[in-house]
């Protein structure tokens, strides 16, 4: 038999050995037997059928596609020991390395002997591949099984797939003349401290100086009130932990942008990779280089969104799983950890917990309102990086606003109480728009901020609000939850529609932020338009109970109230994601989405959006591909609306364009929606 090749100029045996050697160098000691996946991942390419297919491709012909991943998985399963109830772990990764992880009960590689024998071409391909393998590598044991618990199996398969995909792609890349980046840990951060010495600076210095890092723990907690300077503290902690890579995860684009700017100053712009929907690589670098870096997360500091990170952890797609190779020996920082999606929280923490046990990961949980996570013992017992007595002192020093329950209020009643700059927090876009028009009828020209406005429009509103406040002008801002985190703005008073406890506390961080407004207050009120999902409503009901149970849940009784709140919040049941994960049902787990799928995206022709949309539509008409940079620019003009508004989102020349009204003050005018 002629020596089979993986690609012109490279023998199959060389390719398999290269991938296996790389896997062996990356896998932790308990999982090193799984490096056999490297030797077997392309074994079906040894068959006459696949070699003939490759030859015709090289000759410029158009042969019928001959697949090899599922067939290689079948051969690997038979070589390493077939068991229908407990198939070998390597077979999952091998079958997925060009596509996605499948569920064993409906996977194309999970076939019975009878099914294989019924397909002569498949049978011959597998037997021929197995014969070549044994001739090349001899009759030695290929361990495809490890004695693992279900949770360990899930993580082992995900990480093996990530490393197999990465090793396979890199070998092909190097063979074609490419180079592999030498990954180095982040340098010691150059933390820039303010030259002035205000009261808030003194509090931040006390907080940072109190950091105490006991090495050897899998999880750590960094608890601190809003505005205490947690980003600088994070850099200090990562330096003391000697992080080989830092992966910073946050829920909002505003937080990501602000933190990324601080990281650039501390670590150098060349060492920072932003990977989230709000980042435009064309502002900083060639987007093709950026795209390649996002596939592997190869730079020292990664700044990414919760959506990107959590959905990658739970994904079954090889391309998304590949970046998980960066988690080995890394430090993951989960900022605003209280925003972990409740339905996936147990599964996310279980995966991270496994990665801390065998893959060298360390996790820092950051929040002003820390959940206990009692269902994950190692997270629940995580040591505090700043002693809680110091946190309490900082919170006491930053007690620069009070909360007062004022009962039911309508928009007119709120308008009558506006005698200074005021922030009004509501829970839905409909409420925000109705409040805006009600105040306008009273002669109050407010600013409006909600996700009914595209990102660029929201940036302009925040800028206008800051300018009004800076000039001492009356500023009234009506905002949904988009104001609650990551926006550095400060009002002397606020009205907050009844909401979950963590939401109220985050909202409060936009009031008297630096102590510049003595006597600042947040008035909590109820309103008939307070409509939301069952889960959100349940969180509000828990908060109502806590307001009755504690005299001061926002300050004096903060820690006890937060503990009780999160015990109930993360007990909410939805889809039993963890049961699906432990059953290794990768496709069903991957259906989880951090963002409600019952929304439709449209692009608005506001500002420069009209000109951009027309230019991109012209490219589509000319059969040109839109680049990643094109899509990033377009994202600045995107809004997500309920399916009930789908009639206003029209597909025009390949793009979904919002055809409804778009107002300069309130954005998309949404009618008959919650």
From TrEMBL:
Residues 410-566 form the Helicase C-terminal domain. Residues 211-388 form the Helicase ATP-binding domain. Keywords: Antiviral defense, ATP-binding, Endonuclease, Helicase, Hydrolase, Metal-binding, Nuclease, Nucleotide-binding. InterPro entries: Cas3-like_dom, CRISPR-assoc_Cas3_HD, CRISPR-assoc_Cas3_HD_sf, DEAD/DEAH_box_helicase_dom, DEAD_box_RNA_helicase, Helicase_ATP-bd, Helicase_C-like, P-loop_NTPase. Residues 5-170 form the HD Cas3-type domain. The keyword Metal-binding applies. One of its GO terms (molecular function) is endonuclease activity. The keyword Hydrolase applies. Transmembrane segments: none annotated. In the N-terminal section; belongs to the CRISPR-associated nuclease Cas3-HD family. This is CRISPR-associated endonuclease Cas3. It comes from Roseofilum halophilum BLCC-M91.
């Amino acid at each position: 038999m002629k020596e089979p090749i993986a690609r012109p100029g490279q023998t199959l045996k060389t390719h398999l050995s290269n991938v296996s050697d790389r896997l062996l160098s990356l896998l932790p000691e308990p999982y090193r037997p799984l490096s056999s996946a490297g030797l077997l991942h392309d074994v079906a390419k040894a068959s006459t059928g696949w070699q003939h297919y490759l030859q015709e491709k090289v000759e410029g012909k158009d042969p019928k596609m001959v697949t090899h991943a599922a067939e290689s998985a079948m051969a690997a399963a038979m070589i390493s020991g077939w068991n229908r109830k407990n198939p070998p772990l390597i077979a999952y990764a091998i079958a997925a390395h060009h596509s996605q992880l499948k569920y064993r009960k409906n996977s194309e590689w999970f076939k019975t002997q009878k099914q294989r024998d019924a397909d002569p071409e498949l049978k011959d391909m597998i037997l021929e591949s197995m014969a070549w393998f044994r001739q090349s590598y001899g009759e030695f044991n290929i361990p495809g099984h490890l004695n693992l618990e279900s949770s360990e199996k899930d993580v082992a398969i995900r990480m093996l797939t990530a490393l197999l995909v990465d090793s396979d792609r890199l070998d092909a890349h190097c063979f074609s003349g490419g180079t592999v980046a030498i990954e180095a840990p982040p340098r010691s951060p150059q933390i820039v401290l303010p030259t002035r010495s205000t009261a808030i600076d003194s509090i931040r210095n006390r907080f940072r100086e109190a950091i105490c890092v006991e090495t050897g723990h899998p999880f750590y907690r960094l608890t601190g009130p809003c505005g205490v300077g947690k980003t600088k503290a994070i850099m200090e902690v990562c330096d003391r932990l000697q992080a080989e890579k830092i992966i910073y995860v946050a829920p909002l684009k505003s937080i990501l942008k602000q933190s990324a700017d601080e990281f650039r100053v501390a670590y150098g712009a060349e060492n920072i990779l932003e990977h989230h929907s709000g980042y435009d690589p064309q502002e900083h670098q060639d987007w093709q280089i950026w795209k390649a870096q996002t596939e592997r997360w190869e730079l020292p500091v990664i700044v990414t969104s919760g959506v990107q990170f959590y959905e990658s952890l739970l994904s079954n797609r090889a391309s998304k799983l590949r970046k998980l190779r960066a988690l080995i020996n890394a430090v993951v920082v989960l900022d605003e950890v209280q925003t972990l999606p409740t339905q996936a929280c147990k599964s996310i923490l279980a995966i991270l917990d496994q990665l801390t046990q065998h893959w060298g990961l360390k996790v820092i949980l950051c929040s002003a309102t820390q959940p206990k996570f009692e269902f994950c013992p190692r997270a629940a017992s995580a040591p505090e990086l700043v002693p809680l007595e110091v946190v309490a002192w900082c919170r006491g020093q930053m007690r620069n606003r009070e909360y007062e329950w004022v009962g039911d209020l309508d928009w007119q009643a709120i308008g009558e109480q506006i005698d200074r700059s005021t922030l009004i927090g509501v829970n839905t876009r409909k409420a925000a728009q109705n409040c805006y028009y009600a105040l306008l009828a009273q002669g109050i020209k407010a600013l409006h901020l909600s996700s009914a406005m595209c990102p660029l429009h929201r940036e302009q509103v925040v800028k206008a609000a800051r300018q009004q406040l800076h000039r001492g002008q009356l500023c009234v801002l009506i905002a949904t939850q988009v104001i609650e985190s990551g926006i550095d703005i400060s009002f002397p008073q606020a009205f907050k529609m009844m909401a979950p406890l963590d939401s109220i506390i985050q909202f409060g961080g936009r009031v008297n932020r630096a102590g510049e407004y003595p006597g600042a207050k947040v008035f909590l009120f109820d309103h008939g338009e307070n409509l939301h999902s069952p889960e959100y409503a349940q969180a509000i009901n828990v908060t109502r109970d806590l307001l009755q149970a504690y005299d001061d849940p926002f300050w004096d009784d903060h820690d006890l109230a937060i503990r009780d709140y999160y015990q109930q919040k993360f007990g909410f049941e939805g889809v039993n994601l963890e049961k699906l994960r432990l059953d290794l049902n990768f496709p069903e787990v991957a259906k989880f989405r951090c963002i409600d799928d019952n929304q439709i995206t449209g692009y608005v022709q506001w500002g420069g959006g009209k000109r951009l949309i027309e230019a991109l539509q012209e490219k589509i008409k000319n059969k040109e591909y839109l680049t990643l940079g094109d899509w990033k620019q377009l994202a600045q003009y995107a809004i997500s609306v309920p399916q009930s508004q789908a009639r206003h989102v029209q597909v025009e020349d390949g793009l979904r364009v919002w055809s409804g009204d778009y107002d300069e003050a309130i954005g998309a005018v949404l009618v008959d929606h919650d």
